[in-house]
Amino acid sequence: MDPILFRVDDGLARITLNRPQRLNAFDPDLAHAWAEVTAEATSRDDVGAILLEGTGGSFCAGGDVQAMAAGGVAAGEDISRLAEVISRGIRSLTESSVPIVAAAHGTTAGGGLGILMTSDYAIVGADSRIGSLYANIGLTPDLSVSAQLARAIGERRALQLVLQARLLSATEALEWGLVAEVVSAEDPGDIADRVKARAEEVARFWLAGAYRAYGEAKRLIRSQPSRSFADHLSEEARTIGAMFDTPDAQTRIAAFAAASGSRRSSAPESQEKA
Question: What is the mean pLDDT of residues 1-11?
């Protein structure tokens, strides 16, 4: 069974973690497949949005602890190399100008939290649980968790999450700003499908609109910490100018101007009739 599934359909790249028997936890095979697939998804001209999801009952449980315990990882240097491989995929996604939505049903824990935060818009189920739990097995955060968590929810809340054996409920994750939406269903068995369907709706919304502008807006926000304030203002100015010259922007600007002009010209007539 392939550890990861990948397909592109009408501009939407769907990346599916496919180790349901291990809650989609990363082993070496999944790690290398992840790095390859994310690089491809973010480099293809026919991809305008990306959807991250998992098979089975969970989104991602981080690293495969059972494989570690069984001797699948011989030493700490092996863990470090594996984390570097997975992090290449995380960088491919977060540094890209492609908007990314995550359908994170079920449990997300450990490094899975980093995969979740790789998305720009995360959707979970009403029964979802999200946490760090690294210290439960004597390890420290990796896969961008310590790099992204405080930016996402604030330093104090990030510390609360990594310093306790705590799993946030879906409602808590929404209140903390860790996820964008919570999806429910009358039948609990339908929640995973509902989460994935809603995630696809979000991706299709981007694709039906100015998806390149959405992607560049994502890139600007994601990349801001790497620049000084002055440099970032310059990058904003450069980007809006580059987008202005695209055919899509020219068409949309002309349509907006025409619609605005039509509303203004009809206003006095409407007032007179009133």
Answer: 97
Per the structure block, which two tokens stand in for 77? 């240097």
Report the sign of the C-alpha dihedral through residues 56, 57, 59, 60, in that order: negative
> Looking at residue 187, what DSSP letter applies?
S
Question: Who contacts 78 (Cβ-Cβ below 8 Å, separation ≥6)?
Answer: none
Which of 26, 51, 224, 183 lies closest to 113 in space, CA to CA?
A: 26
Which residues on adjacent β-strands are paired with residue 50? 13, 100
**4-208 is classed in which CATH architecture?**
Alpha-Beta Complex (3.90)
Q: Which residue, among 99, 94, 110, 104, has the nearest Cα to 173 in the 3D structure?
A: 104
pLDDT of residue 261 exceeding 90, the answer is no
pTM: 0.93
In this structure, the dihedral spanned by the alpha carbons of residues 217, 220, 221 and 226, taken in order and rounded to 10 degrees, is: 170
User: How far, in Å, CA of 169 to CA of 107, rounded?
Assistant: 10
Residues facing residue 12 across a β-bridge:
9, 49
Q: In whole angstroms, what is the distance from residue 60 CA to residue 48 CA? A: 24
Condensed to tens digits (0 to 9), the pLDDT of residues 42-82 reads 999 999 999 999 999 999 999 988 877 676 666 888 889 99
Rounded to the nearest angstrom, the gap between the alpha carbon of residue 119 and the centroid of all alpha carbons in its chain is 1
CA separation, residue 17 to residues 30, 58, 75, 107, 135 (Å): 8, 10, 25, 13, 24
Q: Where are the domains of the chain?
A: 4-208, 227-273
Q: What is the secondary structure of 89-127 as a DSSP string?
A: HHHHHHTSSS-EEEEE-SEEETHHHHHHHHSSEEEEETT
Buried residues in 209-225 as b, exposed as e (16+ CB within 10 A): ebbbbbbbbbbbebeee
Residue 237's closest CA among 261, 251, 216? 216
